[in-house]
Amino acid sequence: MRWSEAFIPTLRDDPADAEAASHKLLVRAGFVRPLMSGTYSLLPLGQRVCRKIERIVREEMDAIGAQEFLLPVLHPGEIWKRTGRWDAYGDELFRLRDRRDTDLCLSPTHEEIFAVLARELRSYRQLPQIWYQFQTKFRDEPRPKAGLLRTREFLMKDSYSFDLDAQGLDLSFRKHFEAYRKIFGRLGLDAIAVEASSGAMGGSESVEFMVPSAAGEDTVASCAKCGYAANTERATSTLPALEDPPGPARPEPFPTPGLRSIEALARAEGGAPPERQIKTLVYVVNDAPVLVLLRGDHTLVETKLADTTGAATLRPAREDEIRGLLGASAGSLGAVGVRGLRVIADQALRGRRSMLTGANRDDEHLRGVDVERDLPVDAWADLRAVRDGEACPLCGDALRVATSIEIGHIFKLGTRYTESLGAEVQDEAGQSRPIVMGSYGIGITRNMAALVELWHDEAGITWPVAVAPYELVITVVNPRDVASEEAAGQLQSALRAAGIEVILDDRDERAGVKFKDADLVGIPYRITVGPKGLAEGKVELMRRRDRRMQLVELVKAAEIAANAVLEERR
Questions:
Q1: Least confident stretch, 151-155, 307-311, 333-337
Q2: How many CA atoms lie within 13 A of 342 on its CB side?
Q3: Pairing state of beta strands 74-76 and 103-106?
Q4: Smallest Cα–Cα separation from 8: which of 52, 49, 53, 36?
Q5: 3-state secondary structure 52-112
Q6: Is residue 531 domain-resident?
Q7: How far apart (Å, rounded) are the C-alpha atoms in residues 434 and 447?
Q8: Do 296 and 216 fall within a single domain?
Q9: Which of 54, 114, 189, 511 is geometrically suited to a Cys-Cys bond with 184, CB 3.0 to 4.6 A?
Q10: Alpha-carbon 490 to chain mean position
Q11: Which are the contacts of 324, defined by CB distance < 8 A and separation ≥ 6?
């Protein structure tokens, strides 16, 4: 390929709305173009990178015995209704109707459709099965952001395992776990496996693969000492014991005019520090109001509340709903004396006494609250967000909490989908049993963006050889110089013969423009062919990542460059 014939529309400036490095660089370097919010076109360079990511994923999936499918993206709503996800998926599900007024949706994922296909399995002898595909997914994200990291349309590898029992699922899960480690290693991503919430997917267990990055939307708590790692949606920690002073025989009301926040109550005369306050939140869970209690200095993780309650829908209550239920505004709420409302309390409140909470009357609070004595707690749960520096629950060392990008997620689904959709096999005793499923995803376009977040410098992208759109660029300083053009052409032919993916930059542009474009696009190696070097029978070879340069003899340049590329490719 010659650069003069390629469509590589590089830009001088970052897009105005871009904050993440991958968003800026993938647009500027001509890999993608936005069409509308959360929707991007893959240009030729972007397509080449995605195909390379796909190739690596495909090779590792095939290595564990997986079989490739291609399923529709347009699904009948009736199937999604049978599994309960037509409503449970919420507003992220793109719904539409055809001319016959039939409910349809665009696929955010394919558990239902693969489960329908699994109905053609009849006997345990046909198990286990692992099926996968590369397919476009659609999710109506409320806040698409960061370029390809959070979009409404994206390319994904999703795979599904089908087993007779939980032991078989454990084996399929382990196969995927190891395959994913190999995939991310080959891509150049140092992934951390963390405990995660299964969310709308359901199931008994899930593991996310994360890479630390400021551009991520997930937060991971990890321990360098013992290896514990979990998404903060699941993470926990060990808190130091707190000694509470003795309290009164019953809660005592006291005036707090105008005090509506934890911080204000901590500063007020007669108040209490945040760790001795009870924060009361009102949520609407599956259309029913619930009181949620936490320590004053702790933050609720909504996913933990959803997992605890099995919520299909969950939202904070509105101000008018709160006042109608409790008779006061947020900031003056509490659970003392409350009847008829479900109360869920965080584990950190167990055994606490002499606490301060709202009195359900504006401008008034209660002190001396004994949690076990005074609060009608219906359920205890881990609801709080883990904070940086808290003690690891396994070894007690300090946890590090860092922002991360999710690049893969694997789930043990069990029989949720197969029971709903009638996917059964006969076991050895001739009894019908629902097939046990697992689900495993890797976002192809998201992985491309994650790679850029980790592999870039001030000049542009620094792709690993394994996924670079081209492995080497030959930059002709003066394309009008016949000797330079001939030498570049010969080098290109020799490199192609050695199996190297090479592009020849023959544009009639200044050398500096070409060098900047090559750096921006991130091609791992560059050979510069110029009249001065050729006069001495030499060309310049540079490795993009560390800008290491060397002059090599023209007659040996193709061999030296090819060996360097092939060594990194391995």
A1: 307-311
A2: 14
A3: antiparallel
A4: 49
A5: HHHHHHHHHHHHCCCEECCCCCEEEHHHHHHHCHHHHCHHHCEEEECCCCCEEEECCCCHH
A6: yes
A7: 34
A8: no
A9: 189
A10: 45
A11: none
Distances (CA, A) of 211 to 306, 449, 452, 466: 25, 12, 12, 18
Q: How many Å from the N-terminal Cα to the C-terminal Cα in the chain?
A: 24
Asked whether 558 and 498 are in contact (CB, 8 A), the reply is yes
Same domain assignment for residues 143 and 32: yes
Verify cis geometry, omega within 30 degrees of 0, for the bond prior to 108. no
Domain presence at residue 458: no
Nearest residue to 463 via CA among 449, 451, 445: 451
Amino acid code (one letter) for 365: H
The average confidence (pLDDT) of the chain is 95
- Are residue 131 and residue 267 in the same domain, yes or no? no
Buried b (16+ CB within 10 A) or exposed e, 71-84: eebebbbebbebbe
Kindly report the CATH number assigned to the domain that includes residue 131: 3.30.930.10
CATH code of 277's domain:
3.90.960.10
Which residue do the tokens 């310049």 mark?
A: 540
Structure tokens at 28: 């500027």
Alpha-carbon span 528 to 473, nearest angstrom:
8
Rg of the Cα trace of the chain? 29
Q: What's the pLDDT tens digit per position in 529-547?
A: 999 999 999 999 999 999 9
Looking at the structure, tell me whether residues 361 and 424 fall in a common domain.
no
Same domain as 434, residue 541: no
pTM exceeding the 0.85 threshold for the entire prediction: yes
Q: Where are the beta strands (DSSP E) in 229-313?
A: 229-231, 252-255, 278-285, 288-295
**Who contacts 381 (Cβ-Cβ below 8 Å, separation ≥6)?**
304, 305, 308, 344, 345, 346, 347
Average pLDDT over residues 38-60: 98
Task: Give the long-range contacts of residues 27-34, CB within 8 A, separation 24 or more.
Answer: 27/147, 28/460, 28/520, 29/460, 29/461, 29/520, 29/521, 29/522, 30/521, 31/448, 31/469, 32/147, 32/148, 33/9
Q: What are phi and psi of 204, to 5 degrees?
A: -95, -20
Query: Do 500 and 415 fall within a single domain?
Result: no
Whether residues 494 and 443 fall in one domain: no
The predicted-structure confidence for 346-394, as pLDDT tens digits, reads as follows: 999 999 999 999 999 999 999 999 999 999 999 999 999 999 999 999 9
In a domain, residue 233? The reply is no
Q: Residue 463: inside a domain, yes or no? A: no
User: Are the C-beta atoms of residues 36 and 78 closer than 8 Å to each other?
Assistant: no
Does 277 lie in the same domain as 184? no
166: left (phi over 0), alpha (psi -120 to 50) or beta: alpha
Can you give the length of the chain in residues? 570
**What is the number of structural domains in the chain?**
3
Domain of 203? 15-220+404-453
Mean pLDDT of 247-272: 91
- Sequence-separated (6 or more) residues with CB below 8 Å from residue 536: none
Identity of the residue numbered 520: L
Q: Which amino acid is at 191?
A: A
